[in-house]
């Protein structure tokens, strides 16, 4: 975008500047991913209505409606990502040219990152300078809203890293605009993560229902150390990931999603269970072992039949390896 800044200067334009920064417990590559991953805008950013006009791994052109307070402003943005940890933009908004550079840097402490965004608002006369000042004021206010929406995504990725997961996209020199668009791809990997041993859950038959609790009707349980969710639907045991394998987003259910699906909270991906296992009405069910792929690692689930008394009996124990 330097050529645009040079052109503006050559034609007598001046600029006023603004520099804003955000610090958080994540890595610079998580901030870089956040800026390149435009797919999350629809579900995360309430103040943007963005249409992508042209895209490649290093270039992106968008037309958007930018809400700033109660006002809606059309904006055309050209984005470039040629260098690792740097995004450059040129935006035409309110009839003004704004150039933007975002740098994704190491933070003040290990395991933190600092994102520095520098703006230049161009003007040529007294009137346009006042418009540039108004634009700067509105952008500064809007920045906090956008960061309040984006920061949780970065921090969630930082938390997953702290727990021992990693992202296969980290192996690339840069995280380009196309990297996250294939939402069916799984970029989260358990890698060398050491799973705790003796992870198990007991299943009970309570009345006519199966439950994870002998006294209460508990139909779903998270196994946080394995990033898995087990769900009882009728007489079946369903196994889901507890995070989206695509980029690690929390999964959710809403009124439009069946009990047999989970939705990514960042991208429009709907997940079916890894596997589903039929449970017997009787106290004696045959032992079963099911294998499935979870976060780029092969895993197995074993159901072992257990004895119980005549009123509230334990049906099975589920273990993982």
Give the SSE map.
Blueprint: H1 2-10, E1 14-24, H2 28-36, H3 41-44, E2 48-55, E3 59-68, E4 71-80, E5 86-93, E6 96-106, E7 113-123, H4 126-162, E8 166-167, E9 188-189, E10 200-206, E11 209-211, E12 220-223, E13 228-233, E14 236-241, E15 251-252, E16 262-264, E17 270-271, E18 275-278, E19 288-294, E20 297-305, E21 313-320
Give me the secondary-structure category.
Answer: alpha+beta
The quaternary state of the protein chains shown equals single chain
The general outline is: elongated
How many beta-strand runs? 21
CATH domain topology of the largest domain: Alpha-D-Glucose-1,6-Bisphosphate, Chain A, domain 4
Classified by CATH, the class of the largest domain is: Alpha Beta
SSE string, helices as H and strands as E: HEHHEEEEEEHEEEEEEEEEEEEEE
Task: State the low-pLDDT regions, or none.
Answer: 309-313
Adjacency order of strands in the biggest sheet:
1-7-6-5-4-3-2
Sum this structure up briefly.
The chain is α+β, with helices and mostly antiparallel strands. It has 4 helices and 21 strands.
Description of the structure:
By secondary structure, the chain is α+β, with helices and mostly antiparallel strands. The protein has 4 helices and 21 strands. The strands form 5 sheets. A 7-stranded antiparallel β-sheet has the order 1-7-6-5-4-3-2, with helices on both faces. The chain is elongated and about 85 Å long. The protein starts with a helix and ends with a strand.
Quickly list its features.
2 domains; Alpha-D-Glucose-1,6-Bisphosphate, Chain A, domain 4; 18% helix; 321 residues; seven-stranded antiparallel beta sheet; five-stranded antiparallel beta sheet; alpha+beta
């Amino acid at each position: 975008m330097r050529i645009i800044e040079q052109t503006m200067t050559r034609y007598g334009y001046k600029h006023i500047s603004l520099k804003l920064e955000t610090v958080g417990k994540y890595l610079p590559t998580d901030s870089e991913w956040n800026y390149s991953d435009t797919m999350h805008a629809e579900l995360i950013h309430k103040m943007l209505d963005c249409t992508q006009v042209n895209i490649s791994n290093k270039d992106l052109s968008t037309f958007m409606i930018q809400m700033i307070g109660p006002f809606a402003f059309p904006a055309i943005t050209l984005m470039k990502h040629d260098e690792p940890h740097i995004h450059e933009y040129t935006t035409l908004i309110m009839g003004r040219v704004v150039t933007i550079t975002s740098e994704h840097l190491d933070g003040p402490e290990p395991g933190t990152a600092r994102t520095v965004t520098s703006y230049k608002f161009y003007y040529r006369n007294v009137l346009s300078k006042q418009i540039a000042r108004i634009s700067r004021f509105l952008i500064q206010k809007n920045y906090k809203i956008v960061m309040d929406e984006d920061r949780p995504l970065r921090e969630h990725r930082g938390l997953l890293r702290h727990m021992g997961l990693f992202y296969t996209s980290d192996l690339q020199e840069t995280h380009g605009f196309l990297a996250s668009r294939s939402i069916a791809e799984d970029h989260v990997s358990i890698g060398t993560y050491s799973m705790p041993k003796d992870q198990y859950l007991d299943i009970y038959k309570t009345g006519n229902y199966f439950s994870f609790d002998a006294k209460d009707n508990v139909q779903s349980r998270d196994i946080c150390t394995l990033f898995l969710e087990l769900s009882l639907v009728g007489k079946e045991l369903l196994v889901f990931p507890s995070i989206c394998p695509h980029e690690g987003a929390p999964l959710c259910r809403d009124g439009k999603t069946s009990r047999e699906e989970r939705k990514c909270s960042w991208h429009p991906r709907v997940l079916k269970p890894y596997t589903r296992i039929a449970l017997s009405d009787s106290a004696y069910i045959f032992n079963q072992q099911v294998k499935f792929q979870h976060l780029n690692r092969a895993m197995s689930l074993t159901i072992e039949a257990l004895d119980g008394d005549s009123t509230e009996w334990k049906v099975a124990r589920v273990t993982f390896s």
